[in-house]
Amino acid sequence: MEHVTVHEGVTYADRPAGEMKLDLYLPERENPPLVVYVHGGGWIAETRANIPEPEQYAAEWGVAIASVSYRLQEAPDGSDVKEMYDPENPTPRGQFPDHFVDVKAAIRWLRAHADDYGYDAAAVAVWGASAGGHLALLAGVVDDVTDLGDAFADKVEQTVASDESGAVQAVVSWYGVADFTLTDDVEGIIPLLMGGSQSEYPDRYEQASPVTHVTPDSPPTLLMHGREDEVVDVEHSRRFFDALDEVAVDAIRYELHDLNHVWVESVEDIESERVGMELLAADPTHPQSVYEATHVETGGSPDPLVADLPPAGPEAIQRFLERTIE
Question: Do 39 and 22 touch, CB atoms closer than 8 A?
Fold first, then answer.
């Protein structure tokens, strides 16, 4: 594997709750495009270390990779999600939309410091899994945090590298949450995020949903989801794909048959995302269905997002990135 330069624990924002940091992996390539990784963990757990082999994929794909921390959800005493809360996790905590505000701040900070580290500020993709998939999708379809919606107007502020754009040129989502209105829970992590149930705050649920913000200007998107996902139903990726297709934005969706969250067969087998790519790559013949939305201007010819449709896994992501941010 070629040499990759690693910058760990780089501070991109100083919040009242603490410093927000990122890790940056740079391949031996002049001015590579940038992939911003957003980890999962139910918006409340895990750290930016929850990423599949960033040095390996920075080298193999020829991209810079930044794995970013974001403020995790606080869990009040007596909360029914307390079992997800790790008091030893050093990541600062807050309340949604702090998670999204931080991801956007990291993107702007990375764009502002592109010349310092040597990657291409004009070619940025965001990739996330599960809760991180939600934040990645939202970062793709909402350019400015202040555009999230009036339900959160008093909760968002753009203070980090505010002169830079937070827009991205492509999105990769692994089993990301796309539509909060699919849930009617009155307890659990989503009501905690939204400050209450959907019946109490319908506007929050709608405006926090990436699918709400899809427009013809949304970036091309690669979606991968297990059909038997019991944590984030595959319907989330289906709805997001259909919304992109409806407004003529190119997208591709992989559905892996019989697989649950994090590419396992049973929720009891779920491990961290660090092994997610390894699980995908281990069985490239696993049954899967692929759906393409490729839109052609009048007189043009089709230009698919992923040439020859390799199995879901690192090669498919690499080809998508080559098509969208190279």
Answer: no
